[in-house]
TrEMBL record, chain A:
This is ABC transporter permease. The chain crosses the membrane at residues 35-57, 69-87, 115-141, 148-165, 212-231, 237-257. Keywords: Membrane, Transmembrane, Transmembrane helix. The keyword Transmembrane helix applies. PANTHER family: INTEGRAL MEMBRANE TRANSPORT PROTEIN, SLR0610 PROTEIN-RELATED. The keyword Manganese does not apply. The lineage of its organism: Bacteria, Candidatus Shapironibacteriota. InterPro entries: ABC-2_transporter-like (IPR010390). It comes from the Bacteria.
């Protein structure tokens, strides 16, 4: 127990130093620090216009009102804000590092190497999304009917945690494919495109496709499940299903990482 | 298994995709791929004792870097066994990685946009170096490499030589017992190369670290390494003292002569293999055992102003060994 606590402390401390170094790396370019928030704002506005156009003709889609879809969009942004800040960029870099052999420098470091490739830097360029997220959530929450209870809040928080874990494990698994196929950008691009399905209520998809998005490529656990749990639109056992998906992804990602490293060829110097 | 590094029958093979040139070749390779097995390291064995500074030499693609990558745990060997400091490198245990360091001249670990000092601080945390040891080592390395003035400058603004010195500091802060240096002087000017060599020599002397060095610059090897391992096409072809290479591969000596008067070339050719003649200078390659006799013949029968008997330059011997020619 003491050993585990000391390990957790070591990695929290290490992460603090990584975060500090990343912040310094961004702040060294003052102009960059000021403008990096613009792109996410444009991206968010595009989504809002798209949703508004759809709701111009109908009152609800798949049983979800305009403001419920806005809440879903806000939670989707919240999940991806963390994703981009904490690991997506690192995992993209893993694919690049495998191609160029730059992964070498991480693999000789005496710390958990999966931790280093996943969380070796923090990307603050997506912080502009924070403003989007706050605006969308604060507009949507007063307009939706949320029956607040301790159980609901706990289930929502668990499903939100599950969302981060699922996104991470899925991204990590896809990035590990670079250890087998070298150029895995196709897979990561495809995954990124597929996450758009999570911006809309799952009820609009056919039953078969919905099942695929729950248990095949489990992207509905990113924002749909936490939002639907908060709104009481799906049974509570979906939170448990989310945890089972995480266990499955932990197994798959660990196998891919270990087997992949055995195949790692580095690159000529 | 006596050394600090023990390598027995190490093999590392790769499957390499062979593509025919042009677009048609690319389309063809989509349906029918041709693979070729490349034996990057083919059944090599050697031991290295604690504190040794060994030079790995070989032409491009010989397998030097692949060997270092197997020794540092980056690559999983196809066959054979490797033990470094009693560890199986491939398992990459933290206890093992804390005792080694790999410096690659063409790859960097420094954070590009920040001063090198920030990478040092991060490495202190990753390697769990106690603060007093960190400060002592850092001060010592900064003094030895004379980089005090550049520690607070962004890495991207440093010259290659300054950057390489900072790379070395980042790699040595945890005082590794085994150091793998892969072409640490590549791209540096002659002055920086010399400084880097002086540092490596001094570091090896002070810390008694075991160092394996690969380099294409013979000056690096000549100045630093008593023992060399020559690898060519994945195979180990020589392992011994640098001085033994000449004895083993060069069966002749070089006699250089300066004449005081013009001489008949045909008479010179009768002495031995005349490599070069441009009055007043002639250069002969003469079998070792016949060298003193040839020198005496030259002195007796020709108007000699100066005569020198030398070993074949080590660079020439090694070049000939790589190209598979007889050194004559």
């Amino acid at each position: 127990m003491k050993q585990l606590a000391s390990k957790i402390f070591r990695y929290l401390k290490l992460y603090f130093f990584i975060a500090k170094t990343s912040v310094m790396s961004v702040f060294i370019y003052r102009a960059n620090s000021l403008v990096f928030g613009i792109t996410p704002v444009i991206w968010m506005l595009t989504s809002l216009v798209f949703i508004s156009v759809i709701f111009g003709g109908v009152k609800e889609i798949g049983g979800w009102s305009f403001w419920e879809v806005m809440l879903l969009l806000g939670i989707h942004e919240l999940v991806f804000l963390g994703t981009w800040m904490f690991f997506a960029d690192n995992l993209d870099k893993l694919i690049y590092d495998v191609r160029t052999g730059a992964l070498d420098r991480t693999l000789v470091k005496p710390a958990n190497q999966r931790f280093l490739v996943s969380f070796g830097a923090i990307d603050l360029t997506g912080i502009g999304s924070l403003l989007n997220t706050i605006v969308v959530l604060s507009l949507a929450i007063p307009h939706v009917d949320i029956k607040i209870s301790a159980l609901r809040i706990i289930l929502f928080l668990i499903s939100l945690f599950s969302a981060y874990a699922t996104v991470y494990l899925l991204y990590f698994s896809v990035s590990c494919l670079s250890l087998f196929f070298v150029n895995a950008y196709t897979f990561s691009d495809w995954l990124l495109e597929a996450t758009d399905f999570d911006r809309y209520p799952a009820e609009i998809y056919s039953r078969g496709f919905r099942r695929f998005l729950f248990f095949g490529l489990p992207i509905l656990f990113f924002a749909y499940v936490p939002t639907a749990i908060l709104l009481g639109k799906i049974p509570n056992y979906f939170v448990g299903l989310g945890l089972l998906v995480i266990i499955g992804l932990i197994i798959i990602s660990t196998i891919l990482w270990r087997k992949g490293l055995k195949r790692y060829q580095s690159a000529s110097s | 298994m006596s050394g600090i590094i023990n390598v027995i029958n190490l093999k590392k093979y790769y499957q390499v995709h062979k593509k025919e040139p042009g677009l048609s070749g690319s389309i063809k390779s989509l349906f029918h791929r041709k693979y070729e097995e490349v034996k990057a390291v083919d059944n090599i064995s050697f031991n290295i004792e604690e504190g040794e500074l060994v030079g790995f030499i070989g032409p491009n693609g010989a397998g030097k870097t692949t060997t270092l990558k197997c020794l540092s745990g980056l690559l999983y060997p196809t066959g054979g066994s490797v033990s470094v400091l009693g560890f199986d490198p491939w398992k990459r245990k933290n206890e093992f990685l804390k005792q080694i360091s790999l410096v690659m001249g063409q790859k960097n670990q420094l954070w590009w946009d920040l001063p090198a000092m920030e990478t040092f601080i991060l490495n202190k945390e990753i390697y769990e170096i106690p603060k007093p040891q960190y400060e002592e080592t850092l001060n010592e390395l900064v003094e030895l490499l004379e980089v005090k003035d550049v520690l607070k400058v962004q890495v991207r603004k440093l010259s290659l030589g300054q950057r390489m010195k900072c790379e070395l500091i980042a790699a040595l802060l945890h005082s590794p017992k085994v150091l793998f240096l892969d072409e640490p002087t590549i791209g540096l000017d002659v002055v920086s190369q010399k400084k880097m060599r002086d540092f490596i020599k001094e570091y090896n002397h002070r810390k008694k670290s075991t160092i394996i060095l690969t380099s294409h610059y013979m000056d690096d090897v000549k100045e630093l390494c008593k023992r060399v391992v020559i690898i060519n096409k994945g195979k180990l072809i020589f392992d011994g003292n640098l001085s033994e290479i000449t004895e083993k591969y060069a069966d002749h000596k070089i006699i250089s002569v300066i004449f005081s008067k013009d001489v008949d070339v045909k008479k010179l050719e009768a002495i031995g293999q005349l490599r070069e003649f441009s009055f007043p200078k002639a250069v002969f390659a003469i079998k070792r055992e016949a060298a003193s006799l040839a020198a005496s013949e030259l002195l007796q029968n020709f108007p000699i102003a100066d005569l020198n008997i030398e070993e074949v330059p080590i660079e020439d011997v090694i070049r000939e060994v790589f190209t598979g020619k007889d050194v004559a």
